[in-house]
Amino acid sequence: MLMIIVGVYSLYVLVSIYTSVMQIGYINQAKRKSAVLLSASEFLKAGNYAVEKEKMNILSSFFDYLLFIAWIGFGVTYLSSVLSLENDAMFNITMVMSFVVINSLFSMPFSYYEKFVLDEKFGFNKSSMAQYIKDTLISFVMTLVFGSLVVWGIYEIISNFDYWWLWSFAFIFAVVILINMLYPTFRALFFDKVTPLDNEELNAEIKTLMDKTGFVSSGVFISDASKRDARLNAYFGGLGKTKRVILFDTLIAKLSTKELLAVLGHELGHFAHGDIYKNIVLVGVMLFAMFAIFGNLPASLYLEMGLSESPYLVMILLLLCMPVLGFIMMPIMGIVSRRNEYAADKMGSELGGEAGAIELANALKKLVTQNKSFPLSHPLYIFFHYTHPPVLQRLKALGVDVGSSDKSALEGKCEAVL
Questions:
Q1: 275-294 and 257-272 helices cross at what angle (nearest 10)?
Q2: Cβ-based neighbours of 162, under 8 Å, separated by 6 or more
Q3: What pLDDT digit, counting tens, does each position of 327-345 carry?
Q4: Structural domain boundaries of the chain?
Q5: Of 40 and 125, which is predicted with more confidence?
Q6: Over the stretch 8-31, which tens digit does the pLDDT of each residue have?
Q7: What's the pTM value of the predicted model, to 2 decimals?
Q8: Whose CA is closest to 233, among 178, 182, 187, 281?
């Protein structure tokens, strides 16, 4: 059974790397052809950024694979031998959290490189080293505190229930819903400075827009995201009465009022269609599948690892294999998500009146330009990774003439990756 798990993980890594190689080869050829949506220089720059990101993802995937083999081969066994705690609950919690912390430490060089080398090179990073260290420490403490509580909860369920995997699923699913409700509050407390929108005219227009869809919010807020990143974004956070509209200050600075309202109209389309609840259901299906699989593994698997079946081992195996199931589920979730995006675009354009489609299209173009998003992707990469439709397809669906893009990059050979 252990070899089957290793084989499945190996296949996952190979497919993941293969899609990245296809994407790199496609972009390396497409970026030298006629520019689409962007100026020629920005088109080339966006292509270079996308390629650099994929190269880093390949290295990260390969490193994660080596780490997976190390954990499966000897890491978990060694960790259990060096940790000595008499209290069984504390031992299990310490084992799982030590695994999480060690993995986080190994991933830090990639995080640092992405922010202070790659994003710095392409003009995205606005964060200081002090800010980065502060954010990392806060995330580390929150992971230790809340992660330990979650692990303790699952430990108690595994130790006291026959169908522990079913109850563990229910527990984690409840945690996911709670996180969705509290995320805006926690982000405002520990990371971003969030202040109420003080533009009365814009506030009134946003309120009118929300009233059209029955969206009840606890307020419209501005996030000082520019202190970390130059990208544009906005989101609706929370559930029920905790819902908030969060606008990045970068978004307000770059979009006109009508374009901003078009973007919010798109987000309200997600609310009106219940997309957040659909996404939660999809996450629930994935979690159920994960717990169903790992709750019914044969006892021989643990013997192959030289360990007895225990709550910490079940949780570590689940965490190790979570990326595999996520990768398998991603195409399904992507298909649903992309369909939802088209529907939200349609509603956003309708909420904006006669010029709604034009304003939303202009906003999408600015998002591509400011975020240096390369507008073309290999179909295989879209299938496995895209939660949003390619921007060209979204513009065409809005009735915007974007011309025809050169697809000859699909026919060429991939250039060297590294």
A1: 50
A2: none
A3: 888 898 899 999 999 999 9
A4: 2-194+268-410
A5: 40
A6: 999 999 999 999 999 999 999 999
A7: 0.83
A8: 187
